[in-house]
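FAQ: What does the model actually see?

It sees only this:
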Amino acid sequence: MHVFKVVLLILVLFGKNFAQSDSYPPPTNLITIPTAGSLVRGSFSVDMRLQKGGGLTVGLAAGITDRFQFGVSYGASRLVGDDSLIWYPRPEANLKYRLIDETMEKPGVALGLNTQGFGQYHPEDPLGIDSTKSDRYDIKAYGAFFSVSKNWLTFLGNLGIHGGMNYNFTETKDGEKDPNLFFGMDMEFNPELSFLLEYNAAFNDNNEENIVAVDTGYLNAAIRWTFVEHLHIEFDFNNLLLNDNTVEYFNRELKIIYIEYF
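And it is asked to produce this:
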């Protein structure tokens, strides 16, 4: 991970040389991690995440004010295929409040809550035989979080650096209750095409008895294409470090995001 940190540092220093008077607003999320960006008042977004194993998650969020957004999500595992369908146990919440606006001198800061996990949901084991795979998603939700974002204008386009800390208080039956760290970046090549890279340290999911077998965390990358105005199509390449003892290849997923105004 030292190489990844060096690359981020170079990009930050490079971006400062091209900074303008106004910074670009960051996206509300990268691939999975939350940023300090939020939907503005009078806007809403609909996103569909097509996941491995035929899973589908649909989310709806709206900007209540210029600082506060509220959303819900719901989905199912094995929606596509011939296996038994596993619905998520409940609609999940997504709240975010931008506490500090981003300026040229300081980053934006946001507080929030996101209880939507990723991948297949594992129902609670009534017999308690395997509590490490009980009442949780393959990759845990971020739960309560705070995130920090800073953007620069380079000769290519907008460069954003994002990071934060989170605590999941809903998926703890495996005994993992540690706070977690995450960070990432998005780089705009032109108004239509962006590259995203993020790292979820998964400190709250690094017990060898859990679904995650090693403690390398999750490294994800994506290409986001603005197909038409307000419509983004994202090609995700998740778990590049193969942080799971049940997989041999990284996950290839598709996300569709539509943003509109009331």
